[in-house]
Amino acid sequence: MSDDLQKQIEEAQRKALEMQQQMMQQAQSQVFEMQRAMMAAQGIAPEQIEQYLNQSMSQIDAAQQQMMSQNAGAIMDMLGGGEEEKEEFIRQHPQPAQYAKYLAIGALFMCMRDEPVETLEIMDDDIEEYKEQMEEWWGITDRDSAIEMIESVLHGRSYQKVNPTYLTLKAGKRDGVDDDDIANYLATVESLQEYLELSKEEIAQCPSIYGWDIERAGFLARVCSHIGYITTDEAWSYLERAGKLAKEQFTNWQDYGISIVMGRALTMGYDERYFYILEEMLIDEPEYLQSIPISSL
Question: In angstroms, rounded to a whole number, what is the distance separating the alpha carbons of residues 189 and 183?
Fold first, then answer.
């Protein structure tokens, strides 16, 4: 993980912890006011009430500080740690040479989960949690539904619905486009300019939002293999198909990345987390994708 991404994660973590602390302090203040009123109604002397509340506050503050420290460590372990563990995991799980290049498809999604990119296998061994996520988010509960969904995204599940909107907005038109779609598109353009330092002309080179479907197919192939809904051979086959589609649709990883975030914005709304990872993969640490030209897939 690069220093810049680490700083962004730490800043996001700091803001989240500050917000959590403020909410806890507000709730604590309300409880103390209720306690003060109840104790006063019982005839307890004001100085005794304040002494009791001050002691309680000190105990609660100490407990909160310990909890916040534990939460901070957990967040950093989840988002930024374990690089050595990932490298060891990759060494322990060598990939077939003829298929390894296709792991670039789905890599962004795996980075968002802090999983190794260069393996089909997944480090997180909580199979039940993955199954719950697949059912809740994708409607995938078994082999048949897994295959049906992977085939659906490979055939442009979102592309068919949303790409006309993308092309309309890219052409500078707004007629007939939902206000939320306009806002999400403009926010995505702004973030691409900020994080990837791209011009509007460079952003407009992206031909479609098909990359959103292709990337999701790569992710689903990994996860469905991990939880046993499809075989390893089937997962590689899906990754190969996804890679071939990426090669047909895009001339470089930059356009592919733009396609992912545009597709995400127009189907599910703008999400800034994707730009942290894109910046990491395309600018800060581009070696992995540079070693696999999209034309080689």
Answer: 10
Which alpha helices (H) appear in 42-118, and where do they start and end?
46-79, 83-92, 107-112
pLDDT at 238: 98
Please check whether residue 119 is in contact with residue 225, taking contact to mean a CB–CB distance below 8 angstroms.
no
Number of Cβ within a 10 Å radius of residue 278? 22
Alpha-carbon Rg of the chain, whole angstroms? 24
Q: List, in order, residues 6 or more apart from 207 with CB less than 8 Å away.
A: 249, 250, 255, 259
The residue whose two tokens read 């988002």 is 79
Please, are residues 242 and 221 in contact by the beta-carbon 8 Å criterion?
yes
Distances (CA, A) of 124 to 78, 113, 120, 227, 276: 11, 9, 12, 11, 22
The pLDDT value recorded for residue 70 is 47
Place of tokens 């690069």: 2
DSSP letters spanning 115-142: --SS-SS-S---HHHHHHHIIIII---S
Average pLDDT per block of 10 residues along the chain, 297 residues long: 51 55 62 72 74 66 52 46 82 92 97 92 94 96 98 97 97 94 97 96 97 98 97 98 98 98 97 94 95 97
Is 211 buried (19+), middle (13-18) or exposed (0-12) by CB count in 10 A?
Answer: buried
Helix, strand, or coil (residue 228): coil
